[in-house]
Amino acid sequence: MKKLQSLFLLMIAAFGVMLSCDRSSPNEAALTPITLQLNWVPEPEFGGMFAALQDGLYVAEGLAVDIRKGGAQVPCAQLVASGQVPFAIVSGEEVLTLRARGGEIVALFATFQRNPMGFMLHKNNPIDSLEALWKSSSTIGLDPGMPFVAILNEKYGGKNLKMVPYSGAMATFLVTPDYVQQCFITAEPVEAKLRSVDAKVFSVEDVFNPYTAVIATNETYLKENRATVEAFVRATKQGWIRYLANPQKYNPAIVALNPSMTLEAMNIAADLERTLIVPTSGEAGIGQMTMDRWRSLEQQLVDTKVIPVSMSIEEAFFTADPSAAQAP
Amino acid sequence: MMSVMKFFRLMVAPVTAVAFMLVAWQIAVMMSGVSAYLLPSPWAIAQTMWASSDRLIGGAIQTAMAATIGFVVASVIGILGGSMIAAIPFLRRSLYPLATILQMVPLVAVAPLLVIWLGFGLPTAIAAAAVVAVFPVLAATIDGQVSVDPGLRELFLLHGASGWTRWRKLDLPASIPAIVTGLRIAAGLAVIGAIVGEFVSGYGGNAPLGIVIMTAMREARTDLVFAAIALSAVVGFSLFGAVSCLGWFLVHRWHASSVNSLEQSK
Predict the structure, then answer these.
(1) Domain locations along chain B
(2) Which of A44, A46, A106, B85 is a Cys-bridge partner for A269, taking CB atoms 3.0 to 4.6 Å apart?
(3) How confident is the model at residue A27 (pLDDT cuts 50, 70, 90)?
(4) pTM, rounded to two decimals
(5) Residues of chain B with C-beta less than 8 angstroms from the C-beta of A144
(6) What number of CA atoms fall less than 13 Å from residue B118's CA on the CB side?
Protein backbone atom coordinates (compact mmCIF):
# COMPACT_ATOMS: atom_id res chain seq x y z
CA MET A 1 0.00 0.00 0.00
CA LYS A 2 2.82 2.32 0.96
CA LYS A 3 4.48 1.56 -2.38
CA LEU A 4 1.31 2.50 -4.25
CA GLN A 5 1.13 5.79 -2.36
CA SER A 6 4.74 6.57 -3.26
CA LEU A 7 4.09 5.76 -6.90
CA PHE A 8 1.03 8.01 -6.94
CA LEU A 9 3.01 10.91 -5.41
CA LEU A 10 5.79 10.37 -7.93
CA MET A 11 3.31 10.55 -10.82
CA ILE A 12 1.84 13.81 -9.47
CA ALA A 13 5.34 15.27 -9.12
CA ALA A 14 6.23 14.25 -12.71
CA PHE A 15 3.01 15.82 -13.99
CA GLY A 16 3.88 19.02 -12.13
CA VAL A 17 7.33 19.11 -13.72
CA MET A 18 5.80 18.63 -17.16
CA LEU A 19 3.39 21.53 -16.59
CA SER A 20 6.16 23.79 -15.29
CA CYS A 21 8.26 23.08 -18.39
CA ASP A 22 5.49 24.13 -20.76
CA ARG A 23 5.41 27.81 -19.94
CA SER A 24 5.82 29.26 -23.40
CA SER A 25 3.83 32.42 -23.81
CA PRO A 26 1.35 32.76 -26.67
CA ASN A 27 3.82 35.15 -28.39
CA GLU A 28 6.64 32.60 -28.23
CA ALA A 29 4.37 29.92 -29.61
CA ALA A 30 3.63 32.11 -32.64
CA LEU A 31 7.31 32.58 -33.51
CA THR A 32 8.78 30.73 -36.46
CA PRO A 33 11.55 28.47 -35.18
CA ILE A 34 14.69 28.53 -37.32
CA THR A 35 18.25 27.32 -36.89
CA LEU A 36 21.47 29.04 -37.91
CA GLN A 37 24.40 26.61 -38.09
CA LEU A 38 27.74 28.34 -37.54
CA ASN A 39 30.85 27.04 -39.27
CA TRP A 40 33.05 27.86 -36.29
CA VAL A 41 32.77 28.44 -32.57
CA PRO A 42 31.07 31.66 -31.43
CA GLU A 43 33.41 34.59 -32.14
CA PRO A 44 33.06 38.26 -33.14
CA GLU A 45 32.85 37.17 -36.79
CA PHE A 46 29.25 36.21 -35.91
CA GLY A 47 28.72 39.25 -33.66
CA GLY A 48 25.76 40.63 -35.61
CA MET A 49 23.77 37.43 -35.21
CA PHE A 50 24.36 37.34 -31.47
CA ALA A 51 23.48 41.04 -31.17
CA ALA A 52 20.22 40.45 -33.04
CA LEU A 53 19.48 37.56 -30.70
CA GLN A 54 20.36 39.49 -27.54
CA ASP A 55 18.36 42.60 -28.48
CA GLY A 56 15.31 40.63 -29.55
CA LEU A 57 15.56 41.73 -33.21
CA TYR A 58 14.78 38.23 -34.43
CA VAL A 59 11.80 37.94 -32.07
CA ALA A 60 10.57 41.32 -33.34
CA GLU A 61 10.58 39.81 -36.83
CA GLY A 62 8.61 36.78 -35.58
CA LEU A 63 11.59 34.41 -35.48
CA ALA A 64 12.83 32.11 -32.72
CA VAL A 65 16.44 31.69 -33.78
CA ASP A 66 18.62 28.88 -32.47
CA ILE A 67 22.32 29.59 -33.18
CA ARG A 68 24.29 26.32 -33.22
CA LYS A 69 28.02 26.20 -32.63
CA GLY A 70 30.15 24.82 -35.44
CA GLY A 71 33.65 23.47 -35.79
CA ALA A 72 36.30 22.42 -38.27
CA GLN A 73 34.51 19.20 -39.25
CA VAL A 74 30.92 20.50 -39.49
CA PRO A 75 29.87 20.30 -43.18
CA CYS A 76 27.76 23.48 -43.09
CA ALA A 77 27.34 23.84 -46.86
CA GLN A 78 26.11 20.26 -47.25
CA LEU A 79 23.83 20.58 -44.23
CA VAL A 80 22.09 23.65 -45.58
CA ALA A 81 21.97 22.45 -49.21
CA SER A 82 20.34 19.20 -48.15
CA GLY A 83 17.79 21.01 -45.99
CA GLN A 84 19.05 19.65 -42.68
CA VAL A 85 19.22 23.24 -41.41
CA PRO A 86 17.49 26.27 -42.95
CA PHE A 87 20.46 28.63 -42.55
CA ALA A 88 24.20 28.13 -42.20
CA ILE A 89 27.39 30.14 -42.34
CA VAL A 90 29.57 29.13 -45.29
CA SER A 91 32.26 30.72 -47.42
CA GLY A 92 31.64 32.14 -50.87
CA GLU A 93 33.66 29.45 -52.62
CA GLU A 94 31.66 26.73 -50.83
CA VAL A 95 28.46 28.13 -52.32
CA LEU A 96 29.79 27.91 -55.88
CA THR A 97 31.59 24.60 -55.35
CA LEU A 98 28.48 22.92 -54.02
CA ARG A 99 26.25 24.42 -56.70
CA ALA A 100 28.64 22.99 -59.30
CA ARG A 101 27.99 19.54 -57.77
CA GLY A 102 24.21 19.95 -57.84
CA GLY A 103 23.68 21.41 -54.38
CA GLU A 104 20.72 23.80 -54.05
CA ILE A 105 22.52 26.36 -51.92
CA VAL A 106 21.87 30.10 -52.15
CA ALA A 107 23.89 32.94 -50.55
CA LEU A 108 21.84 35.56 -48.71
CA PHE A 109 24.13 37.84 -46.74
CA ALA A 110 27.90 38.37 -46.98
CA THR A 111 29.28 39.33 -43.59
CA PHE A 112 32.87 39.95 -44.70
CA GLN A 113 33.16 42.12 -47.77
CA ARG A 114 36.93 41.65 -47.71
CA ASN A 115 38.56 38.28 -47.18
CA PRO A 116 39.79 38.06 -43.57
CA MET A 117 41.94 34.99 -44.30
CA GLY A 118 45.68 35.27 -44.03
CA PHE A 119 48.84 33.58 -42.85
CA MET A 120 50.27 34.21 -39.41
CA LEU A 121 54.01 34.06 -38.70
CA HIS A 122 56.06 34.76 -35.60
CA LYS A 123 57.09 38.41 -35.67
CA ASN A 124 60.83 37.64 -35.74
CA ASN A 125 60.45 35.30 -38.72
CA PRO A 126 62.64 36.84 -41.48
CA ILE A 127 60.02 36.17 -44.19
CA ASP A 128 58.60 39.57 -45.15
CA SER A 129 55.88 38.96 -47.74
CA LEU A 130 53.35 36.44 -48.99
CA GLU A 131 55.52 35.87 -52.05
CA ALA A 132 58.61 35.22 -49.90
CA LEU A 133 56.58 32.87 -47.73
CA TRP A 134 55.42 30.90 -50.75
CA LYS A 135 58.98 30.62 -52.05
CA SER A 136 60.32 29.43 -48.68
CA SER A 137 60.48 25.94 -47.20
CA SER A 138 58.25 26.80 -44.24
CA THR A 139 55.78 24.43 -42.64
CA ILE A 140 52.28 25.86 -43.05
CA GLY A 141 49.20 24.64 -41.22
CA LEU A 142 46.08 25.10 -43.34
CA ASP A 143 42.85 23.35 -44.20
CA PRO A 144 43.35 20.92 -47.10
CA GLY A 145 41.50 22.02 -50.22
CA MET A 146 41.74 25.80 -49.73
CA PRO A 147 41.31 27.22 -53.27
CA PHE A 148 43.84 30.03 -52.79
CA VAL A 149 46.62 27.45 -52.38
CA ALA A 150 46.36 26.54 -56.08
CA ILE A 151 46.35 30.24 -57.00
CA LEU A 152 49.43 30.95 -54.88
CA ASN A 153 51.17 27.83 -56.20
CA GLU A 154 50.59 29.01 -59.75
CA LYS A 155 51.80 32.51 -58.94
CA TYR A 156 54.79 31.82 -56.72
CA GLY A 157 55.64 28.11 -57.03
CA GLY A 158 55.43 26.82 -53.48
CA LYS A 159 57.29 23.59 -54.28
CA ASN A 160 59.39 23.68 -51.11
CA LEU A 161 56.54 24.42 -48.72
CA LYS A 162 55.49 21.71 -46.32
CA MET A 163 51.74 21.94 -45.94
CA VAL A 164 50.18 20.27 -42.93
CA PRO A 165 46.55 20.18 -41.81
CA TYR A 166 45.36 22.96 -39.53
CA SER A 167 43.63 21.47 -36.51
CA GLY A 168 41.98 24.71 -35.40
CA ALA A 169 44.17 24.85 -32.29
CA MET A 170 47.03 27.33 -31.88
CA ALA A 171 49.25 25.17 -29.67
CA THR A 172 51.70 24.28 -32.44
CA PHE A 173 52.07 27.92 -33.49
CA LEU A 174 52.69 29.11 -29.96
CA VAL A 175 55.53 26.65 -29.32
CA THR A 176 57.14 26.51 -32.80
CA PRO A 177 58.95 29.73 -33.85
CA ASP A 178 59.21 28.91 -37.58
CA TYR A 179 55.70 27.48 -37.94
CA VAL A 180 53.18 29.36 -40.09
CA GLN A 181 49.44 28.88 -39.97
CA GLN A 182 46.29 30.12 -41.64
CA CYS A 183 44.28 32.60 -39.62
CA PHE A 184 41.41 35.01 -39.57
CA ILE A 185 43.38 38.24 -39.31
CA THR A 186 40.89 39.40 -36.67
CA ALA A 187 41.15 36.34 -34.45
CA GLU A 188 44.26 34.15 -34.09
CA PRO A 189 46.90 36.94 -34.21
CA VAL A 190 45.02 38.78 -31.45
CA GLU A 191 44.81 35.63 -29.36
CA ALA A 192 48.54 34.95 -29.93
CA LYS A 193 49.47 38.48 -28.81
CA LEU A 194 47.44 38.08 -25.65
CA ARG A 195 49.46 34.93 -24.98
CA SER A 196 52.68 36.95 -25.34
CA VAL A 197 53.50 35.71 -28.85
CA ASP A 198 53.82 38.58 -31.30
CA ALA A 199 52.72 37.67 -34.79
CA LYS A 200 52.71 39.27 -38.23
CA VAL A 201 50.09 38.53 -40.84
CA PHE A 202 50.04 38.35 -44.63
CA SER A 203 46.51 38.69 -46.00
CA VAL A 204 45.45 36.64 -49.02
CA GLU A 205 42.87 39.27 -49.98
CA ASP A 206 44.91 40.49 -52.95
CA VAL A 207 45.00 37.06 -54.59
CA PHE A 208 41.71 35.57 -53.42
CA ASN A 209 38.84 37.69 -52.19
CA PRO A 210 35.57 35.75 -51.88
CA TYR A 211 32.75 36.79 -49.60
CA THR A 212 33.32 35.14 -46.24
CA ALA A 213 31.03 34.19 -43.36
CA VAL A 214 28.16 34.12 -45.83
CA ILE A 215 24.68 33.26 -44.59
CA ALA A 216 23.19 30.66 -46.95
CA THR A 217 19.94 28.80 -47.29
CA ASN A 218 18.63 26.25 -49.77
CA GLU A 219 16.55 26.97 -52.84
CA THR A 220 13.46 25.11 -51.67
CA TYR A 221 13.44 26.83 -48.29
CA LEU A 222 13.86 30.20 -50.01
CA LYS A 223 10.97 29.54 -52.38
CA GLU A 224 8.62 28.33 -49.65
CA ASN A 225 9.64 30.78 -46.89
CA ARG A 226 10.69 33.95 -48.66
CA ALA A 227 9.18 36.24 -46.02
CA THR A 228 10.99 34.37 -43.25
CA VAL A 229 14.28 34.58 -45.14
CA GLU A 230 13.88 38.31 -45.71
CA ALA A 231 12.96 38.86 -42.07
CA PHE A 232 16.01 36.89 -40.93
CA VAL A 233 18.37 38.85 -43.19
CA ARG A 234 16.79 42.15 -42.16
CA ALA A 235 17.21 41.42 -38.45
CA THR A 236 20.77 40.15 -38.97
CA LYS A 237 21.75 43.33 -40.79
CA GLN A 238 20.35 45.46 -37.97
CA GLY A 239 22.16 43.20 -35.52
CA TRP A 240 25.45 43.92 -37.28
CA ILE A 241 24.86 47.68 -37.20
CA ARG A 242 24.24 47.46 -33.46
CA TYR A 243 27.17 45.11 -32.83
CA LEU A 244 29.69 47.25 -34.69
CA ALA A 245 28.46 50.34 -32.84
CA ASN A 246 29.00 48.77 -29.42
CA PRO A 247 30.64 45.31 -29.49
CA GLN A 248 31.50 45.47 -25.78
CA LYS A 249 27.79 45.19 -25.02
CA TYR A 250 27.45 41.87 -26.82
CA ASN A 251 30.83 40.17 -26.45
CA PRO A 252 30.27 38.90 -22.86
CA ALA A 253 27.43 36.70 -24.14
CA ILE A 254 29.69 35.37 -26.93
CA VAL A 255 32.52 34.68 -24.46
CA ALA A 256 30.07 32.69 -22.34
CA LEU A 257 29.54 30.41 -25.34
CA ASN A 258 33.25 30.27 -26.22
CA PRO A 259 35.36 30.62 -23.06
CA SER A 260 38.52 29.65 -24.98
CA MET A 261 38.64 33.21 -26.40
CA THR A 262 39.02 35.99 -23.86
CA LEU A 263 36.76 39.03 -23.66
CA GLU A 264 39.75 41.25 -24.36
CA ALA A 265 40.55 39.31 -27.54
CA MET A 266 36.93 39.56 -28.68
CA ASN A 267 36.85 43.32 -28.14
CA ILE A 268 40.05 43.77 -30.15
CA ALA A 269 38.79 41.42 -32.89
CA ALA A 270 35.53 43.36 -33.15
CA ASP A 271 37.44 46.60 -33.74
CA LEU A 272 39.66 44.96 -36.37
CA GLU A 273 36.82 43.39 -38.33
CA ARG A 274 34.90 46.64 -38.84
CA THR A 275 36.85 47.61 -41.98
CA LEU A 276 36.38 44.13 -43.43
CA ILE A 277 32.61 44.12 -42.87
CA VAL A 278 31.43 47.65 -43.63
CA PRO A 279 31.64 48.33 -47.39
CA THR A 280 32.82 51.62 -48.83
CA SER A 281 29.17 52.58 -49.37
CA GLY A 282 28.67 52.61 -45.59
CA GLU A 283 26.58 50.70 -43.08
CA ALA A 284 23.57 50.61 -45.37
CA GLY A 285 25.52 48.19 -47.54
CA ILE A 286 26.37 45.69 -44.79
CA GLY A 287 25.83 42.17 -46.11
CA GLN A 288 25.56 43.24 -49.75
CA MET A 289 26.72 41.03 -52.63
CA THR A 290 27.54 42.10 -56.16
CA MET A 291 27.34 40.12 -59.37
CA ASP A 292 30.87 41.16 -60.32
CA ARG A 293 32.36 39.72 -57.16
CA TRP A 294 30.55 36.41 -57.62
CA ARG A 295 31.60 36.21 -61.27
CA SER A 296 35.21 36.96 -60.35
CA LEU A 297 35.16 34.18 -57.74
CA GLU A 298 33.60 31.77 -60.21
CA GLN A 299 36.33 32.52 -62.75
CA GLN A 300 39.06 31.85 -60.17
CA LEU A 301 37.47 28.53 -59.20
CA VAL A 302 37.18 27.47 -62.84
CA ASP A 303 40.77 28.54 -63.55
CA THR A 304 42.07 26.52 -60.61
CA LYS A 305 39.90 23.53 -61.62
CA VAL A 306 38.03 23.50 -58.31
CA ILE A 307 34.80 23.57 -60.28
CA PRO A 308 34.53 22.13 -63.77
CA VAL A 309 32.41 24.66 -65.64
CA SER A 310 30.88 28.08 -65.22
CA MET A 311 27.33 28.22 -63.92
CA SER A 312 24.34 30.48 -63.63
CA ILE A 313 25.61 32.97 -61.06
CA GLU A 314 22.24 34.74 -60.90
CA GLU A 315 20.83 31.79 -58.97
CA ALA A 316 23.77 31.48 -56.58
CA PHE A 317 22.79 34.46 -54.49
CA PHE A 318 19.59 36.15 -53.45
CA THR A 319 19.09 39.66 -52.29
CA ALA A 320 15.79 41.08 -51.15
CA ASP A 321 16.87 44.48 -52.41
CA PRO A 322 17.90 44.07 -56.11
CA SER A 323 19.65 47.45 -56.12
CA ALA A 324 22.06 46.14 -53.46
CA ALA A 325 23.28 43.50 -55.91
CA GLN A 326 24.42 46.19 -58.30
CA ALA A 327 25.96 48.44 -55.68
CA PRO A 328 29.68 49.10 -56.10
CA MET B 1 43.59 -28.01 -58.96
CA MET B 2 41.57 -28.90 -55.89
CA SER B 3 42.84 -25.88 -54.01
CA VAL B 4 41.88 -23.56 -56.92
CA MET B 5 38.36 -25.01 -56.92
CA LYS B 6 38.18 -24.62 -53.18
CA PHE B 7 39.30 -20.99 -53.45
CA PHE B 8 36.55 -20.24 -55.96
CA ARG B 9 33.99 -22.03 -53.79
CA LEU B 10 35.03 -19.88 -50.83
CA MET B 11 34.85 -16.67 -52.84
CA VAL B 12 31.37 -17.18 -54.31
CA ALA B 13 29.42 -16.11 -51.20
CA PRO B 14 31.30 -12.87 -50.35
CA VAL B 15 31.57 -11.77 -54.00
CA THR B 16 27.84 -12.38 -54.52
CA ALA B 17 27.03 -10.38 -51.37
CA VAL B 18 29.19 -7.43 -52.47
CA ALA B 19 27.78 -7.51 -56.01
CA PHE B 20 24.22 -7.59 -54.67
CA MET B 21 24.93 -4.63 -52.38
CA LEU B 22 26.48 -2.57 -55.21
CA VAL B 23 23.56 -3.28 -57.58
CA ALA B 24 21.02 -2.40 -54.87
CA TRP B 25 22.95 0.81 -54.10
CA GLN B 26 23.10 1.79 -57.79
CA ILE B 27 19.36 1.17 -58.26
CA ALA B 28 18.50 3.05 -55.06
CA VAL B 29 20.49 6.12 -56.18
CA MET B 30 19.00 6.03 -59.69
CA MET B 31 15.43 5.59 -58.44
CA SER B 32 15.63 8.20 -55.66
CA GLY B 33 17.41 10.84 -57.72
CA VAL B 34 19.50 11.80 -54.69
CA SER B 35 22.18 14.38 -55.49
CA ALA B 36 25.71 13.09 -56.06
CA TYR B 37 27.12 15.37 -53.35
CA LEU B 38 24.94 13.52 -50.82
CA LEU B 39 25.30 9.95 -52.07
CA PRO B 40 27.08 9.13 -55.33
CA SER B 41 26.32 5.90 -57.15
CA PRO B 42 28.87 3.04 -57.20
CA TRP B 43 29.31 3.63 -60.94
CA ALA B 44 30.13 7.31 -60.35
CA ILE B 45 32.61 6.29 -57.62
CA ALA B 46 34.23 3.78 -59.97
CA GLN B 47 34.58 6.48 -62.64
CA THR B 48 36.16 8.82 -60.08
CA MET B 49 38.55 6.07 -58.99
CA TRP B 50 39.64 5.65 -62.58
CA ALA B 51 39.94 9.39 -63.27
CA SER B 52 41.82 10.09 -60.02
CA SER B 53 43.79 6.86 -59.93
CA ASP B 54 47.22 8.55 -59.68
CA ARG B 55 46.15 10.65 -56.71
CA LEU B 56 44.36 7.76 -54.99
CA ILE B 57 47.07 5.16 -55.51
CA GLY B 58 49.77 7.59 -54.34
CA GLY B 59 47.67 8.33 -51.25
CA ALA B 60 46.94 4.64 -50.62
CA ILE B 61 50.68 3.85 -50.71
CA GLN B 62 51.35 6.57 -48.12
CA THR B 63 48.53 5.33 -45.90
CA ALA B 64 49.52 1.68 -46.34
CA MET B 65 53.07 2.53 -45.28
CA ALA B 66 51.91 4.31 -42.10
CA ALA B 67 49.37 1.59 -41.28
CA THR B 68 51.79 -1.29 -41.89
CA ILE B 69 54.64 0.18 -39.85
CA GLY B 70 52.19 1.13 -37.08
CA PHE B 71 50.74 -2.37 -37.19
CA VAL B 72 54.20 -3.98 -36.92
CA VAL B 73 55.12 -1.72 -34.00
CA ALA B 74 51.81 -2.53 -32.28
CA SER B 75 52.32 -6.26 -32.92
CA VAL B 76 55.81 -6.31 -31.40
CA ILE B 77 54.75 -4.23 -28.39
CA GLY B 78 51.51 -6.19 -27.99
CA ILE B 79 53.10 -9.66 -28.17
CA LEU B 80 56.13 -8.90 -26.00
CA GLY B 81 54.19 -6.75 -23.53
CA GLY B 82 51.32 -9.24 -23.40
CA SER B 83 53.75 -12.12 -22.79
CA MET B 84 55.37 -10.27 -19.91
CA ILE B 85 52.05 -9.32 -18.38
CA ALA B 86 50.79 -12.90 -18.72
CA ALA B 87 53.96 -14.35 -17.17
CA ILE B 88 54.19 -12.03 -14.16
CA PRO B 89 51.04 -11.92 -12.01
CA PHE B 90 52.04 -8.58 -10.45
CA LEU B 91 52.24 -6.95 -13.89
CA ARG B 92 48.91 -8.52 -14.85
CA ARG B 93 47.27 -6.98 -11.80
CA SER B 94 48.91 -3.58 -12.21
CA LEU B 95 49.26 -2.99 -15.98
CA TYR B 96 46.30 -4.81 -17.52
CA PRO B 97 43.69 -2.40 -16.07
CA LEU B 98 45.87 0.52 -17.16
CA ALA B 99 46.11 -0.85 -20.70
CA THR B 100 42.33 -1.28 -20.74
CA ILE B 101 41.83 2.35 -19.68
CA LEU B 102 44.33 3.60 -22.29
CA GLN B 103 42.39 1.72 -24.96
CA MET B 104 39.33 3.82 -24.08
CA VAL B 105 41.07 7.15 -24.73
CA PRO B 106 39.59 8.54 -27.99
CA LEU B 107 42.25 8.64 -30.70
CA VAL B 108 40.88 11.89 -32.18
CA ALA B 109 41.68 13.61 -28.88
CA VAL B 110 45.18 12.12 -28.69
CA ALA B 111 46.15 12.69 -32.34
CA PRO B 112 46.78 16.48 -32.02
CA LEU B 113 49.05 15.74 -29.05
CA LEU B 114 50.98 13.22 -31.13
CA VAL B 115 51.71 16.03 -33.61
CA ILE B 116 53.12 18.19 -30.82
CA TRP B 117 55.24 15.32 -29.50
CA LEU B 118 56.39 13.76 -32.78
CA GLY B 119 56.01 16.54 -35.34
CA PHE B 120 54.17 16.57 -38.64
CA GLY B 121 54.36 13.77 -41.18
CA LEU B 122 54.73 10.02 -41.19
CA PRO B 123 55.87 9.45 -37.55
CA THR B 124 52.59 10.78 -36.16
CA ALA B 125 50.49 8.68 -38.55
CA ILE B 126 52.53 5.60 -37.57
CA ALA B 127 52.13 6.38 -33.87
CA ALA B 128 48.37 6.88 -34.26
CA ALA B 129 48.11 3.52 -36.06
CA ALA B 130 50.19 1.81 -33.36
CA VAL B 131 48.26 3.37 -30.48
CA VAL B 132 44.91 2.14 -31.76
CA ALA B 133 46.19 -1.30 -32.86
CA VAL B 134 48.21 -2.33 -29.83
CA PHE B 135 45.43 -3.24 -27.41
CA PRO B 136 43.79 -6.10 -29.36
CA VAL B 137 47.20 -7.76 -29.77
CA LEU B 138 48.06 -7.22 -26.12
CA ALA B 139 44.72 -8.54 -24.88
CA ALA B 140 44.79 -11.54 -27.23
CA THR B 141 48.35 -12.41 -26.23
CA ILE B 142 47.53 -12.28 -22.52
CA ASP B 143 44.35 -14.27 -23.04
CA GLY B 144 46.15 -16.87 -25.13
CA GLN B 145 49.01 -17.33 -22.71
CA VAL B 146 47.00 -17.55 -19.50
CA SER B 147 44.80 -20.17 -21.16
CA VAL B 148 47.63 -22.64 -21.83
CA ASP B 149 46.78 -26.18 -20.70
CA PRO B 150 47.92 -26.37 -17.01
CA GLY B 151 48.84 -30.04 -17.53
CA LEU B 152 51.37 -29.10 -20.20
CA ARG B 153 52.72 -26.33 -18.02
CA GLU B 154 53.25 -28.82 -15.16
CA LEU B 155 55.00 -31.16 -17.58
CA PHE B 156 57.49 -28.40 -18.45
CA LEU B 157 58.01 -27.67 -14.76
CA LEU B 158 58.53 -31.37 -14.09
CA HIS B 159 61.33 -31.43 -16.64
CA GLY B 160 62.93 -28.33 -15.10
CA ALA B 161 62.40 -26.11 -18.16
CA SER B 162 63.42 -22.47 -17.69
CA GLY B 163 60.90 -19.65 -18.05
CA TRP B 164 62.43 -18.70 -21.42
CA THR B 165 62.19 -22.28 -22.72
CA ARG B 166 58.62 -22.61 -21.51
CA TRP B 167 57.62 -19.32 -23.21
CA ARG B 168 59.41 -20.25 -26.45
CA LYS B 169 58.21 -23.83 -26.67
CA LEU B 170 54.82 -23.77 -24.94
CA ASP B 171 53.25 -20.41 -24.11
CA LEU B 172 53.99 -18.64 -27.40
CA PRO B 173 53.09 -21.50 -29.78
CA ALA B 174 49.96 -22.37 -27.81
CA SER B 175 48.77 -18.75 -27.91
CA ILE B 176 49.36 -18.22 -31.64
CA PRO B 177 45.69 -18.78 -32.64
CA ALA B 178 44.59 -16.15 -30.09
CA ILE B 179 47.37 -13.76 -31.15
CA VAL B 180 46.40 -14.15 -34.81
CA THR B 181 42.82 -13.25 -33.91
CA GLY B 182 44.12 -10.12 -32.14
CA LEU B 183 46.35 -9.29 -35.12
CA ARG B 184 43.39 -9.56 -37.52
CA ILE B 185 41.43 -7.01 -35.46
CA ALA B 186 44.52 -4.81 -35.17
CA ALA B 187 45.06 -4.85 -38.95
CA GLY B 188 41.79 -3.04 -39.62
CA LEU B 189 42.26 -0.67 -36.69
CA ALA B 190 45.77 0.27 -37.87
CA VAL B 191 44.35 1.67 -41.10
CA ILE B 192 41.75 3.68 -39.21
CA GLY B 193 44.47 4.95 -36.86
CA ALA B 194 46.75 5.91 -39.75
CA ILE B 195 43.97 7.91 -41.43
CA VAL B 196 43.07 9.73 -38.20
CA GLY B 197 46.78 10.47 -37.77
CA GLU B 198 46.92 11.84 -41.32
CA PHE B 199 44.00 14.16 -40.55
CA VAL B 200 46.31 16.07 -38.22
CA SER B 201 49.83 15.19 -39.27
CA GLY B 202 50.57 16.24 -42.81
CA TYR B 203 50.60 15.98 -46.51
CA GLY B 204 53.88 14.22 -47.29
CA GLY B 205 55.02 13.93 -50.91
CA ASN B 206 51.76 12.47 -52.15
CA ALA B 207 48.77 13.43 -50.03
CA PRO B 208 47.77 10.32 -48.03
CA LEU B 209 44.18 9.10 -48.05
CA GLY B 210 43.32 11.06 -44.89
CA ILE B 211 44.22 14.32 -46.63
CA VAL B 212 42.48 13.25 -49.85
CA ILE B 213 39.30 12.71 -47.79
CA MET B 214 39.58 16.14 -46.10
CA THR B 215 40.27 17.92 -49.37
CA ALA B 216 37.42 16.15 -51.12
CA MET B 217 35.04 17.04 -48.28
CA ARG B 218 35.94 20.72 -48.62
CA GLU B 219 35.40 20.57 -52.39
CA ALA B 220 32.07 18.73 -51.93
CA ARG B 221 33.54 15.82 -53.92
CA THR B 222 31.59 13.07 -52.15
CA ASP B 223 32.45 10.67 -54.98
CA LEU B 224 36.15 11.18 -54.23
CA VAL B 225 35.51 10.74 -50.49
CA PHE B 226 33.90 7.35 -51.20
CA ALA B 227 36.70 6.43 -53.61
CA ALA B 228 39.30 7.19 -50.92
CA ILE B 229 37.29 5.21 -48.37
CA ALA B 230 37.18 2.27 -50.80
CA LEU B 231 40.96 2.47 -51.22
CA SER B 232 41.45 2.58 -47.43
CA ALA B 233 39.27 -0.53 -47.19
CA VAL B 234 41.51 -2.20 -49.77
CA VAL B 235 44.56 -1.29 -47.67
CA GLY B 236 42.90 -2.66 -44.52
CA PHE B 237 41.74 -5.80 -46.31
CA SER B 238 45.25 -6.42 -47.67
CA LEU B 239 46.74 -6.15 -44.21
CA PHE B 240 44.00 -8.41 -42.83
CA GLY B 241 44.63 -10.90 -45.63
CA ALA B 242 48.37 -10.93 -45.00
CA VAL B 243 47.80 -11.58 -41.29
CA SER B 244 45.30 -14.35 -42.08
CA CYS B 245 47.81 -16.00 -44.45
CA LEU B 246 50.51 -15.77 -41.80
CA GLY B 247 48.13 -17.23 -39.22
CA TRP B 248 47.18 -20.09 -41.54
CA PHE B 249 50.86 -20.80 -42.25
CA LEU B 250 51.64 -20.98 -38.53
CA VAL B 251 48.72 -23.08 -37.30
CA HIS B 252 47.24 -25.03 -40.23
CA ARG B 253 49.16 -28.24 -39.47
CA TRP B 254 48.11 -28.63 -35.87
CA HIS B 255 45.42 -26.30 -34.60
CA ALA B 256 41.89 -27.62 -34.26
CA SER B 257 40.27 -24.71 -36.15
CA SER B 258 42.33 -25.33 -39.29
CA VAL B 259 42.21 -29.09 -39.06
CA ASN B 260 38.43 -29.09 -38.56
CA SER B 261 37.81 -26.73 -41.46
CA LEU B 262 40.05 -28.89 -43.64
CA GLU B 263 38.11 -32.00 -42.70
CA GLN B 264 34.76 -30.27 -43.28
CA SER B 265 35.84 -29.25 -46.75
CA LYS B 266 36.81 -32.78 -47.72
Answers:
(1) 52-253
(2) A44
(3) low
(4) 0.78
(5) 203, 207, 211, 214-215, 218
(6) 19
